[in-house]
Design brief:
Blueprint (H helix, E strand, L loop, with lengths): L6 H91 L3 H7 L6 E8 L6 E8 L3 E11 L1 H17 L7 E11 L3 H7 L3 E6 L2 E4 L9
Parallel strand pairs: 3-4, 4-5
Antiparallel strand pairs: 1-2, 2-3, 5-6
Length: 219
């Protein structure tokens, strides 16, 4: 014969069920709290990494800017050094050519008697400088001296010649000729200068000479 179920038995069953439910709810709360803690840690770690990446990116930008400024400074120093060397080299060539130009152009049939260096005009909007100017009573020869002669340099000389009488109007009734002098000449540039009607002055031993042949027609 089975034992009858009493009210106390039912109460104990409900109590055990409640305790199990409470335990499960507590476990669920604990797990939720653990999940929240882990999520908070992940968020904090992500924020830390983002801040660290931002810091590193900022440091890299600063370093890149510093290197760019340093490179610009080095490049500018190199340019200044090269420009200084080119200027000194050009002045050396000019001082080599100037003492010889009277003789050179007298040998070409010009009765030139005067030589001027670094002749400058600032009339109007022009700022024209001639390296060497050789003159007599009705002829002026503009000699441009270059450390290295290129086609672009020839074009600049031709432009200088086209502006010469406007920049120096007291020579307006003179016949104007052009000449270029250089130690280093790019390939075929001397031929280009020759075809443009320019005298070409080259180094010859310890002095210089006009390389144009007898068939040359100066313009």
């Amino acid at each position: 014969m089975s034992t009858p179920v009493t009210l106390e038995d039912i109460y104990q069953i409900f109590q055990r069920s409640q305790e199990e439910a409470d335990r499960r709810f507590a476990e669920a709360d604990r797990r939720a709290a653990e999940a929240d803690r882990q999520l908070a840690e992940m968020r904090a770690e992500n924020e830390r990494r983002i801040l660290e990446n931002d810091r590193r990116a900022a440091e890299m930008r600063v370093e890149a800017e510093r290197r760019a400024l340093e490179n610009d400074r080095i490049i500018q120093e190199l340019r200044n050094t090269v420009n200084s060397l080119m200027s000194r080299w050009g002045r050396f060539v000019e001082n080599l050519v100037a003492p010889a130009v009277l003789r050179l152009f007298q040998e070409q049939g010009f009765a030139v008697q005067e030589v001027y260096q670094r002749v400058r005009s600032a009339r109007g909007n022009r700022n024209l400088e001639i390296d060497i100017l050789v003159v007599d009573d009705d002829v002026a020869i503009v000699v441009e001296v270059k450390s290295r002669l290129t086609q672009n340099e020839i074009r600049q000389v031709l432009n200088t010649l086209s502006e010469f009488k406007s920049a120096f109007p007291h020579y307006k009734n003179y016949r104007i000729y052009g000449a270029v002098a250089a130690i280093e000449i790019d390939k075929d540039v001397d031929t280009y200068a020759y075809n443009q009607g320019l005298f070409v002055i080259k180094q010859s031993g310890e002095s210089v000479k006009i390389s144009n042949d007898e068939s040359f027609q100066a313009r």
